[in-house]
Amino acid sequence: MATGNRPLSPHLQVYRPQITSILSITHRATGVGLAVGALGLAYWLNAAAYGAGAFDRAQAIFSSLIGTILLIGFTFALFFHLCNGVRHLFWDTGRGFEMVQLRASGWAVVLISLGLTAVTWLIVLAG
Amino acid sequence: MMDLRSDLARARGLGSAKEGTGHWWAQRVTAVALLPLGLWFVYSAVSWGSMDLAAFKVWLSEPGNLLLMVLFVGTLFYHMQLGVQAVIEDYVHGEAAKITGLMINIFAAIFFGAASIIALFKVAFGG
């Protein structure tokens, strides 16, 4: 079978961006981002296992400006992936596939995950 | 060598990826488990930023906290392995690169998952 240069997936460039497709790829992107975050968690836990010096360095890295920006990103990624994951689990029951419902649940995921991220970091930065 | 089984018997249970719905189901089970565990993790992580190692040791030595951290980390790395596998299968087309990637993914998930869980026990029980 000649599969050399045939396109394998829908051409992204021929589709107008829509909330459904954007959230679909964002689910994947946040999943990959959270995989990186999981490695960060593994580093942080192992720093704690190595002793106070390593732990203090890890704490300094994560509380630096870049570290804080990364953690805010991971927080949003986690909330988005979790909320959109609930959306996926609901779809697994065979419901919610009308376009009106898809758009509504999509925007709900965006707003709730942004809200949860904001509330979490207000608590972190206030406390 | 002669095979006395029918075509149907040989194909039954294989599925297109020779594993039936195993991957799909494991992804759902870990996703459902990560809903409460993930929310608990964020709730807990909010307080970690201001901790030194001694404070984190006290926090982790609470039996409930150690249990939930071990469950969270184990489920997280399992779910991560399943998700990254789907990404590799979708985007890496060369057979050698794909199989290499899938292997590295499994090794990395088990390595970092095991390292994290060992670190948790060391911090909780270590002197």
Characterise this structure.
The complex is a heterodimer of chains A (127) and B (127). By secondary structure, chain A is an all-alpha fold. Chain A has a single domain, classed as Fumarate reductase/succinate dehydrogenase, transmembrane subunit (3 helical TM bundles of succinate and fumarate reductases, Up-down Bundle). Chain A has four helices and no strands. The N and C termini of chain A lie far apart (62 Å). The mean pLDDT of chain A is 93. Chain B has 127 residues and is mostly helical. Chain B has one domain (21-125): Fumarate reductase/succinate dehydrogenase, transmembrane subunit (3 helical TM bundles of succinate and fumarate reductases). Chain B contains five helices and no strands. Chain B has helices at residues 7-11, 22-45, 53-61, 63-91, 95-125. In chain B, helix 3 (53-61) packs across helix 5 (95-125) and helix 4 packs antiparallel against helix 5 (95-125). The termini of chain B are far apart. The mean pLDDT of chain B is 92. The chains are: A mainly alpha (127), B mainly alpha (127). The A-B interface holds A 8-9, 28, 31-32, 34-35, 38-39, 41-42, 45-46, 48-49, 51-52, 55-56, 59, 62-63, 75, 78-79, 82, 85-86, 88-89, 92, 120, 123-124, 127 and B 28, 31-32, 34-35, 38-39, 42, 46-47, 49-54, 56-57, 73, 76-77, 80, 83-84, 87, 90, 93, 112-113, 115-116, 118-120, 122-123, 126.
What is this structure, in a nutshell?
The complex is a heterodimer of chains A (127) and B (127). In chain A, 78% of the residues lie in helices and 0% in strands.
